[in-house]
């Protein structure tokens, strides 16, 4: 069985956060949802648990960071194409998220954008042409060797 990832996010308004993630493309799993949590599913291996601050605090003794002011984690999500990257960011914006809190990245073989959910959690969405990336790395290594010779 492939490992699964469950990202736990504290949210100020569970209903608003649930609606946002549904609009972006997640599905709510009622089996793991109640008045304090929404289990959201993106794929068989990627899940997000949206937790009220009170519920989140049950799992840590640390202060809950305000993701609008501080950054503790950047969540990266792969996409199948450049258009899918743009489409996901557009969905996030339409649902009330903030598009592109950081610069867009376009390296030819890799393209990335980001968005913040209503609570300020940052998601980086990227597409990469693995073959083109390998070629770029090989070219860089060859150029470095030639410069050192």
In terms of topology, how is this protein built?
Blueprint (H helix, E strand, L loop, with lengths): L4 E7 L2 H11 L2 E8 L2 E5 L4 E7 H4 L17 E5 L3 H13 L3 E2 L5 E2 L3 E7 L5 E7 L1 H19 L1
Parallel strand pairs: 1-4, 5-9
Antiparallel strand pairs: 2-3, 3-4, 6-8, 7-8, 8-9
Helix pairs in contact: 1-3
The assigned structural class equals alpha+beta
CATH class of the largest domain: Alpha Beta
Mean pLDDT metric: 92
* Residue share in helix: 25-40%
Which strand-content bin applies to the residues? Answer: 25-35%
Described by strand count, sense and barrel closure, the largest sheet is: 5 strands, mixed
Number of strands: 9
Uncertain segments: none
Kindly report the name of the CATH homologous superfamily of the largest domain: 2,3-Dihydroxybiphenyl 1,2-Dioxygenase, domain 1
Structure description:
By secondary structure, this protein is an alpha+beta fold. The relative contact order is 0.16. The longest helix is centred in the C-terminal third of the chain and has 19 residues, at 130-148. The model has no long low-confidence stretch (mean pLDDT 92). The protein has two domains: 1-63, 2,3-Dihydroxybiphenyl 1,2-Dioxygenase, domain 1; 70-149, 2,3-Dihydroxybiphenyl 1,2-Dioxygenase, domain 1 (Roll). The termini are far apart. The strands form two sheets. Strands 5, 6, 7, 8 and 9 form a five-stranded mixed sheet that branches. Strands 1-4-3-2 form a four-stranded mixed sheet. It is 32% helix and 34% strand.
């Amino acid at each position: 069985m492939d490992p699964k990832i469950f990202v736990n996010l504290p949210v100020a308004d569970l209903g608003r956060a649930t609606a946002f993630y549904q609009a972006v493309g997640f599905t709510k799993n009622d089996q793991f949802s109640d008045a304090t949590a929404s289990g959201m599913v993106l794929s068989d291996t990627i899940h997000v648990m949206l937790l009220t601050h009170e519920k989140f605090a049950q799992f840590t003794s640390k202060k809950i960071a305000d993701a609008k002011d501080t950054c503790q984690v950047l969540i990266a999500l792969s996409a199948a194409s450049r258009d899918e990257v743009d489409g996901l960011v557009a969905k996030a914006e339409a649902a009330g998220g903030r598009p592109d809190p950081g610069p867009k990245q376009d390296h030819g073989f890799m393209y990335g954008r980001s968005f913040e959910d209503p609570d300020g959690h940052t998601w980086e969405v990227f597409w990469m042409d693995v073959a083109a990336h390998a070629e770029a790395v090989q070219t860089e290594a060859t150029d470095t060797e030639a410069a050192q010779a």
